[in-house]
Amino acid sequence: MQTRQTVGRGKVYDTILDTIGDTPCVRVNNIAPAGVEMYVKAEYFNPASSVKDRLAISIIEEAEKSGALKPGEIVVEATSGNTGVGLAMVCAAKGYPLIVTMPDSASIERRRLMRFFGAKVILTPRTEKGIGAYKKAKELVDANGWFLAAQFETSANALVHENTTAREILADFDGKSLDYWVSGYGTGGTLTGVARVLRQSSPGTRIVLSEPDIAQLIGSGDGQDRSEDGAPAVSHTAFEPHPIQGWTPDFIPLVLQEAIDHKMFDEVVPVSGADGIHWSRELASKEGILTGISGGATFAAAMQVAERADAGAVILCMLPDTGERYLSTPLFETIGEDMDEEETRLSLSTPGFHM
Q1: Residue ranges of the domains in the chain?
Q2: Which of 32, 56, 159, 269 fits a disulfide with 28 by CB distance 3.0 to 4.6 angstroms?
Q3: Is 94 a catalytic residue?
């Protein structure tokens, strides 16, 4: 076997923001069903460990170009976590103060990460769901004239995935069939942006969207009531609280509406939170791939596709973030801090250093 070596990237970076994107597509070797090729696009290779780093840099840079965001202006956003972490990183690097509003049901790790990057985090009651966090952000902006990032409505969202994520996928699978591309949705930007390109440049690729089985907003067929600016007016009738953080807020985002209106996906696969947790754990323990509940849930949908796909099918699944963002959530509730019985037995099997 050849000794592993590295030679460096052959360049240095002016800022951490230049490292966003170009995340790897990695083959799943041990838990994929026989007869198919499964890959994951590991978005936790982004510098703040999630796909939302792409969205964050796009929102800020597009606003800078248009003049909507002035130097040193305060940025405000409502988020369940990853967009806030990405924005906190980008704002720290560019010198913008950031205020994030988020439901108090979001994981402690996310709150502390944003504050570690220098952001202010305003918690809203979980009973008010995502709409409550959005309304608080809007109140702050209206009262103070600050800049609202508006991840759920901004055209900068899908644009960055059209220009980066989709192009990376085409390049990585150049000369190779890509039969299925599987994604969940939070804002809908990944789906809409990538689908714009795949529909044109890889029309044979079936696009599979997933959402929580207890919160099937798209699956319900019911529309979303909106305000004049496209923001949600009320919670969607099909929403129920679910454990897949980062997936499916209590409304259909305007960014996602394009994909719905133009039928930019071929099917919707519902997934349970329990399956998301299961497959996140399987990816970690059987493949060494660390992703969160949303990544596990997306992979659960990909596994459903793989079980019925034709022999030789090639499937790519999006993994939005890292498992480390979920240490205080049910994903890790069975993982102990102290030694278990087997670990204790191993410790006692030799004479030294017993606890």
Answers
A1: 16-45+165-332, 52-148
A2: 32
A3: no
